[in-house]
Specification:
By secondary structure, this protein is mainly alpha-helical. 87% of the residues lie in helices and 0% in strands. Belongs to the bacterial diacylglycerol kinase family. It catalyses: a 1,2-diacyl-sn-glycerol + ATP = a 1,2-diacyl-sn-glycero-3-phosphate + ADP + H(+).
Length: 123
Amino acid sequence: MFLTQSRSALRNSLQGLTVAARSERAVRQELVVLAVALPAAFVIADQIYDWIALIGSLTLVLIVELLNTAIEKLCDHLHPGRHPAIGTVKDFGSAAVFCALIFALVVWVSLATLNVLLPHGDL
């Protein structure tokens, strides 16, 4: 029973990711960045927790983008026309993505500076 539910949940998750990648340019861009960042993170990271922070920050961006996409799709389904309240909701989702992107940028710039540009702690 548990394995059946787990397989079903995995299948649904992969289907959602596939649909998002096919229909949303931002999701495709973030998947490409994540694919390029995986090997780059091995070069930048000195410790495993650095690698986790680098990849985790980009994964967070993807997660927030997927949630934003879900909110936008639901809003468009419930109210296809323009509505100020729905516009505000969509703006909130967009702001969340922006915050996640800034966080990822800070993580990558900080760790690249500390581990690549100043590898011996010469601040």
